[in-house]
Amino acid sequence: MQIDFLGMQAFLSIVEHGGFIPAAEHLHLSQTAISHRIRKLEDSLGVQLFRRTTRQVTLTDAGRALLPGVRKAMRELESSYEVLRLQRQFAPDWLAFGCLPTLSVAHLAAPLQRFKQEYPHIAIRVLDDTVREIVEHVESGVAAFGISIASRVRPGLPVEVFAEEPFVLACHRDHPLVTREVVSWEELVGVELIRIGLPAGNAATIDDALGERRTQFNWRYEVQRTALALDLVRSGVGVTVVPALSVSTVTDVTAIPLIAPLVRRSLVVLRPREAVLTPAAQLLCDCVIDGLRTRLAAMAPVTVDAERSASLPS
């Protein structure tokens, strides 16, 4: 399916500038040209987006439904354009890599300091983005490599698993479950849970592990980012299931091993297809991977105990 970006641009401009004429002026188009773009977009969607009268232009129900997605898409496109522009402008001075936010927050300082000792004059750009965006950064050459997770997003890139990260139950320090050394999924039936709903990330991993059992749980809230889910936990709204490394920076929140099943996600490094990393990029990649492995190794005794508990008969 072809995406009509020019039509979406015209649609958003009409909404934000209050009509066809001011939108045409903003885009340096004739009123006829912008009307043509909207007609073409409406024809491709099969719906009318605006109600037009001699006095005003208003959105239809279909237009209102489309607006949030178009606004987000255009903002992300503008952001990507700016990243590329800056990357081109400062390319000789920057080394960029992609990294999931749950892996970057609180876990990159030591690796970056280690890298700085060897290459003190190279500036680093961390693209802490989603799974799909990291793939795009590496494929386009904006990022030298990407630190991500194995997911349903299947890039045409070399992917190497370098660690397994367990999921844990994140509870407020005053929650009744916080005193437990380990919790089973069965014990969470009826507990108000916060779901993290990005389709290519944690939710898919948990759904795959639980299978049909996932419908038994009380997913009381749904958010799109791990940081928000943990903030809600910190505020006492509910509990959530998150990758273990994401909990370490949140005050008043405790991570408890979660078993039966023990859910993990595979941490991977994405590299450019048929490309060899520069010595600096390879060292940076190694520093980040070693740093994450060290963090996970510190959790190993807890994980081993949880696995042992999971293997015992109930």
Description:
The protein starts with a helix and ends with a helix. It has 314 residues and is α/β, with parallel strands linked by helices. It has helices spanning 5-17, 20-26, 31-45, 61-89, 101-104, 109-118, 131-140, 202-210, 226-234, 279-298, 300-311; strands at 50-52, 57-59, 94-99, 123-127, 146-149, 159-172, 183-184, 192-196, 218-223, 239-243, 253-259, 264-270. The chain is globular, with a radius of gyration of 24 Å. It has 3 domains: 5-80, Arc Repressor Mutant, subunit A, CATH 1.10.10.10; 87-161 and 266-298, 3-Layer(aba) Sandwich (D-Maltodextrin-Binding Protein, domain 2), CATH 3.40.190; 164-265, D-Maltodextrin-Binding Protein, domain 2 (3-Layer(aba) Sandwich). The strands form 2 sheets. Strands 3, 4, 5, 6, 7, 8, 9, 10, 11 and 12 form a 10-stranded mixed sheet that branches. The chain has a two-stranded antiparallel ribbon with strand order 1-2. Helix 1 (5-17) crosses helix 4 and helix 2 (20-26) crosses helix 3.
How would the blueprint of this fold be written?
Layout: H1 5-17, H2 20-26, H3 31-45, E1 50-52, E2 57-59, H4 61-89, E3 94-99, H5 101-104, H6 109-118, E4 123-127, H7 131-140, E5 146-149, E6 159-172, E7 183-184, E8 192-196, H8 202-210, E9 218-223, H9 226-234, E10 239-243, E11 253-259, E12 264-270, H10 279-298, H11 300-311
Parallel strand pairs: 3-4, 3-5, 7-11, 8-9, 8-10
Antiparallel strand pairs: 1-2, 5-12, 6-10, 6-11, 6-12
Helix pairs in contact: 1-2, 1-3, 1-4, 2-3, 6-10
**Percent of sequence in beta strands:** 15-25%
Task: List the secondary-structure elements in sequence, H or E.
Answer: HHHEEHEHHEHEEEEHEHEEEHH
Question: Mean pLDDT across all residues, rounded?
Answer: 87
CATH architecture of the largest domain: 3-Layer(aba) Sandwich
Most strands sheet: 10 strands, mixed
Structural class: alpha/beta
Distance separating the two termini: 51 Å
Poorly predicted spans: 310-314
Q: Kindly state the percentage of residues in helix.
A: 40-55%
Radius of gyration: 24 Å
Approximate shape: globular
CATH T-level fold name of the largest domain: D-Maltodextrin-Binding Protein, domain 2
Number of domains: 3
Number of distinct helices: 11
